[in-house]
Design goal:
Blueprint: H1 28-50, H2 60-72, H3 85-98, H4 105-118, H5 135-148, H6 151-156, H7 159-169, H8 186-198, H9 210-217, H10 234-246, H11 255-263, H12 285-288, H13 292-302, H14 317-327, H15 345-359, E1 360-363, E2 366-369, H16 390-400, E3 405-406, E4 412-413
Antiparallel strand pairs: 1-2, 3-4
Helix pairs in contact: 2-3, 3-5, 3-15, 5-8, 8-10, 9-10, 10-13, 11-13, 14-15
Length: 418
């Protein structure tokens, strides 16, 4: 176990040298970037004046209260997320497990019952009861049920109908649509691969052609776009890479080009990540971008990368933690995009997930911790592929691998070596 880091990078003598240089050419984006840097600098300065002698702290109790209340009561502001209700369950449950906060069994059972009402008679989960099934809430619902990890939770998932739902979305080129009649993008390949692997319903025909299609989504920048030919984007890049890891085909990507792209997305002054070239820092990319680095580390190590560190990921873990702890916490609980923005459960989940990635290197026998601030800032580790805690992944996989892989028409088949 490592000692917490007490020397703050953002208070260093030369940190101001990392400010954006617009070369005397002002643009809309450079003006916005300077505004964000100014707001972040104000936060750093305030910390320097008021708290220099006390390390930054994760407001665990405030976050717990905010999250616990959200499981039972949501404000009118969340009405716009009526089609994303399984996501709210997942964001809150995962945030709580990262904080090592348990959920009462009665609440967990109520979540199971609610998600069961979101499951479509034709398979998959919808954004709410009575809505059409969609791959995004299907991913969220399966993750939420795996976090709960009880027999009741596992039994909610109709594996045969889930497999039939995934087949109904599969396209001839290997891609998936998000819902019947919906759009194609790389999110759908990841959501399908994630739920299929967790619940042991992967079949060879289901993902035939999928790795090749994802490879075509990697562009000249090195990152991955939503579909072939589009701009590289942090969320899509994570989804593409994580899907390839699940399908054991990550070697088909240009990994070194991808590494160059993602490491260049950590903002030099703020310490957090941007999602695309020429965009602003956003707390949610603390996971979508930083979460790529463990996947790349493992893939490059498999290819014989002997120069890889055995103690640190290939990004500035301290800088990311400082950004999250100083710039992304609401004093009343919950986390946010950047200074001046409102808290929400989405950013709470992915800021905490990114903070966990930045704190923990490796797993099992090779585990190194980098903790900025107090010892109490330590979060539980998160699985970089599924973004739920590793023990919950192992528990779900063990449970569902005791069951036969259903076939497309209900017949049994063996899990293929993808």
């Amino acid at each position: 176990m490592e000692e917490p880091i007490s020397i703050m990078r953002c208070l260093g003598e030369y940190h101001s040298a990392e400010l954006f240089n617009e070369d005397n050419v002002k643009t809309v984006t450079s003006i916005e970037q300077k505004k964000v840097e100014d707001s972040v600098q104000d936060v750093f300065n305030a910390y320097k004046i008021n708290h220099r002698l006390s390390p930054p702290s994760l407001q665990r109790e405030q976050h717990y209260i905010y999250l616990k209340r959200g499981l039972r009561h949501l404000s009118d502001a969340y009405e716009c997320l009526d089609a994303s209700r399984p996501w709210l369950c997942y964001w809150i449950l995962h945030s709580l497990e990262l904080l090592d906060e348990s959920v009462p069994s009665s609440v967990a059972s109520d979540v199971c019952k609610f998600l069961a009402r979101c499951q479509s008679p034709s398979g998959g989960f919808a954004g709410g009861p009575g809505q059409h099934p969609h791959l995004a809430p299907t991913y969220a619902a399966v993750n939420a049920l795996c976090i709960i990890g009880t027999e009741e939770a596992y039994n909610v998932i109709d594996r045969q109908k889930l497999l039939d739902f995934l087949y109904s979305l599969k396209q001839p080129d290997g891609s998936f649509i998000m819902h019947v009649g919906g759009e194609v993008d790389v999110r759908s390949a990841y959501c399908a691969a994630s739920v299929a692997s967790l619940t042991n319903i992967i079949t060879a025909p289901l993902f035939e052609g999928t790795p090749s299609w994802i490879t075509r989504c990697q562009n000249w920048e090195g990152g991955i776009g939503g579909v072939p030919g589009l701009e590289a984007h942090g969320g899509y890049t994570f989804c593409g890479m994580a899907a390839m890891v699940i399908l054991q085909k990550e070697h088909m990507l240009d990994l070194k080009s991808l590494l160059r792209w993602v490491t260049s997305k950590q903002m030099r002054f703020e310490g957090g990540f941007q999602g695309r070239c020429n965009k602003l820092v956003d707390g949610c990319y603390s996971f979508w971008q930083a979460g790529l680095l463990p996947l790349l580390h493992r893939a490059l190590h498999t290819q014989g990368g002997s120069s890889l560190s055995m103690t640190n990921w290939m990004f500035h873990q301290q800088a990311l933690q400082e950004y999250i702890l100083l710039c992304c916490q609401n004093p009343s609980g919950g986390l946010l995009d950047k200074p001046g923005k409102s808290r929400d459960f989405y950013h709470t989940c992915y800021c905490l997930s990114g903070l966990s990635i930045a704190q923990h290197f490796g797993s099992r026998e090779i585990h190194h911790e980098v903790i900025v601030g107090k010892e109490e800032n330590r979060l539980a580790p998160t699985h970089p592929v599924y973004n739920i805690c590793p023990d919950k992944v192992a528990q779900a996989v063990q449970h569902f691998h005791q069951m036969a892989v259903p076939g497309k028409s209900g017949s049994s088949s063996q899990t293929p070596n993808l």
